Amino acid sequence: MRDLVCLHAGTSGPSTWDRFVPEFEALGYRVHRPTLLGHGTAPRRRPYLLDDFRDHTLRELDGLERVTIVGNSLGAFVASAIAAAEPERVERLVLEELPIPPRDSQDRDPTVRPMPTLGLLAAGWLTRRKSDPLLLRDVIADLRRPQPAWWTGLAAVQAPTLLLAGGPTSHLDQTRFPLVAETMPTATVTTIDAGHRIHTKAPERWLDVVRGFLAFKGA
């Protein structure tokens, strides 16, 4: 069997993938659902930097030689960062509503509807049972900083990559997904008009697209 890793969004958790596990197992995958840093029983440390999410998840994946990774939002960024850092370990990528940081100081912010600081703190407080209340604030602040090493690393990723865009109701700038696809040699963009959490709002459409993409191995 091949290993498939599902990475949840910020303030979410591994259970967001529950309904899809049987489908992935039917394709011949062994499914892993690690908890991201600052969520649930995972360690909490501040500030929450993007590199720390990547490194914590890599430690969780110790012992797995090659993986396919499915991620949503923050989980999609962590998946892409793992692939950029260790491209030889990644077989395939599904990046759902990937937040895309600037390349340099002249580049654009990753969102079109920024949330004020008080709004971020309120959102964190409402989800405090799932995650550190300050996590969203730190993550969004780091996503607004240029991440040139991440952009450079993407060019080395040879794994087939499916970029899933949520369409105009998403808070992410949809015009940035083609920029990533141009950088990654084997990436394609597919839009499912369902907003930021496609797999929650349109699970059947999401599954149809993802299942077709993951079934390449003929398991």
Structure overview:
- There is one protein chain.
- The chain is built from nine helices and six strands.
- It has 219 residues and is of the alpha/beta class.
- Helix 2 crosses helix 3 and helix 3 (74-85) packs across helix 6 (148-154).
- The N and C termini lie close together (9 Å).
- 36% of the residues lie in helices and 15% in strands.
- Helix 3 (74-85) links the parallel strand 3 and strand 4.
- The chain has a six-stranded parallel β-sheet, sandwiched between helices.
Explain the layout of strands and helices:
Layout: E1 2-7, H1 21-26, E2 29-32, H2 50-60, E3 67-72, H3 74-85, E4 90-96, H4 117-126, H5 135-143, H6 148-154, E5 161-165, H7 177-183, E6 187-191, H8 198-201, H9 203-214
Helix pairs in contact: 2-3, 3-6
Distance between the termini: 9 Å
Q: Tell me about the largest β-sheet.
A: 6 strands, parallel
Strand content: 15-25%
Q: What would you report as the Rg, rounded to the nearest angstrom?
A: 16 Å
Widest beta sheet: strand line-up: 2-1-3-4-5-6
- The dominant shape is globular
Helix content: 25-40%
Count of helices? 9
Structural class: alpha/beta
Overall pLDDT score: 91
